[in-house]
Each structure stands twice: as C-alpha cells, then as structure tokens.
Specification:
about 280 residues; alpha/beta; NmrA-type_oxidoreductase; NAD(P)-dependent oxidoreductase; NAD(P)-bd_dom
Length: about 280
C-alpha cells in the first residue's frame, strides 16, 4: 500500500509520517511531497519536490497511490486554486482514498478561516473520490509560550472554550485513519481538552513560576495589535475573526472523535505546556 502525504515538510506532515512509520508502515511505502525536502530527508521515505500549482507534477506524484493525506495549504486566499489542483490530480491518478485536514464544523461555522475549507469539502464531494474529512481543531502550538512569557497573552476569544490539541495528536489520528479501514465517507470533528485563554495563561503561570495574564480585546483592537507586530493585515483579520468565533463557541469540539482515533486520551494541556516551558 502506497501512502502519499502532501505538505510533508511542514510540522503536521512530518509528524504524520513519523506516526505512520511508528505504526509499522514501511518507509518504502510512503511518499512525501513538499518544497523543502531537506526537512524530511532523515525519515528514509521517498520524497518529491512538488508545487501545489503544478497539476501534472501532482498527477505523476499521485499515480499508484492507494491513499493520500491531503494537508491543506498554509496560505489563506490561495487554498482554493491549490486544492482544486490537488483534487484534479488525485482524480486523474485514480487515488483510492483522500484524507483531508479541514476545520471544525466547516459546513456550519461563520468563521472566515473556514470558507476555503468548505469549498474544498464541496469539491471533494463533487469529485466522486472516496474521502475522509478530518476537521482538526486548533493546535496548542498556535499559542507561543515563549511569547506569552515575554509579553503576556492577548486575544479576542473572551471566555470561549478552545478544544486545542497537540499537532502530534492530530498527526497520529490522521495516521490511524490512513492505516485503518472503514473510514471512507466519515467526518471527524477533532478537538482536545478544552480551555479558555484565561485558563491557558494560568497554566503557563503555574508551570513557569512567572505571572502571565490574558488580555481580552475586541476583534478590531486585536487586529491592530497583530498588524503592529508584523502580521499582514488580511491574515491578522482572519486570526481576530477566529477569536471572535471562538468567543461564541466555534472552537469547542468534544474529545470523542479524536480519542476514538487515537485509542487513548488526548494529550493534556498541562503536558503540552510542560514540554514548551522546558
């Protein structure tokens, strides 16, 4: 069985490959696609330099693949054309199953970040390709402990609960789907142990021994803060909008699906913070 991982040189892609290897998939059966292949050169898998804009190269890379872990593009505003190319190439190549990393409740949320994911889900449905939707929640790693210790924690999520999990947990769940059976057509809403940003600040304080406060702002003010530290305005607006939605519960996801795929409890927030504080 051949498994292709797109975006393999990113954090999630590498962790997914490591999890596949840990689950006994031979390195010879894994193909990693990306642009900075030196980042996964040590894994012993087949690697191919492929750009999401090149349908022919993608088709060639997918040919012979039984399953594809389709990790969404990282650039908001460019995902739809890139994802269209990936789906077109996968259909051209006759891929057996696509496992796509989406976002929580992509079909019902009003979060701006979900718009391109919903289009991608619709394109997959229209393609007729067998597929699985992994609607991944937030990464705990989205919150920099180093930055929180230096400047405090700032956001616009109010007291909304955020079911973040570690990248490693999401990667392991993806690997479980790829090596398992009976997942075709399933939609998994994946989230970790829920916490508010006030909770997060308290946990960082507890483990670091340094007082860290959470400052809650309006989405507009938070956008200004993000732009002020160098985040491009369009992306700053998307991040602030995500916090706005989180304040209303958009990023709360029960742990049920993630723990079912992992076959164990999700990694606790305290464990993740302990690793970051060291």
């Amino acid at each position: 069985m051949t498994i292709v991982v797109t975006g393999a040189t990113g954090h999630l892609g590498r962790l997914a490959i490591e999890s596949l290897l840990a689950k006994g998939v031979p390195a010879a059966d894994i193909v990693g696609l990306g642009r900075q292949l030196d980042k996964i050169a040590d894994l012993g898998i087949t690697t191919k330099h492929v750009d999401y804009a090149d349908v022919d190269a993608l088709t060639a890379a997918f040919t012979g693949a039984d399953k594809v872990l389709f990790i969404s593009g990282s650039e908001p505003g460019k995902r739809v054309p890139q994802h269209t190319n990936i789906i077109t190439a996968a259909k051209n190549a006759g891929v057996g199953l696509i496992v796509y990393t989406s976002i929580p409740r992509a079909d019902t949320t009003d979060m701006k970040l979900a718009e391109e994911h919903l289009v991608t889900e619709q394109l997959l449905a229209e393609s007729g390709l067998p597929h699985v939707l992994l609607r991944n929640g937030w990464y705990i790693e989205n919150y920099s402990v180093e930055q929180a210790l230096a400047h405090g924690l700032v956001g616009a999520a109010g007291e909304g609960q955020i079911s973040a999990a570690t990248r490693a947990d999401f990667a392991e769940a993806a690997a479980s789907v790829l090596v398992g059976e009976g997942h075709e057509g399933k939609v998994y809403e994946l989230g970790g142990e829920p916490f508010t940003l006030t909770d997060l600040a308290a946990e960082i304080s507890r483990q670091s021994g340094q007082e860290v406060a959470y400052t809650d702002l309006s989405p507009e003010k938070y956008t200004e803060v993000l732009v002020g530290v160098g985040v491009p305005a369009p992306f700053a607006e998307i991040l602030a909008d995500s916090d706005r939605a989180a304040a209303k519960g958009a990023l709360f996801v029960p742990v049920t699906d993630l723990e079912a795929l992992l076959g164990r409890p999700v990694t606790p927030l305290a464990t993740a913070i302990a690793a970051a504080v060291k």
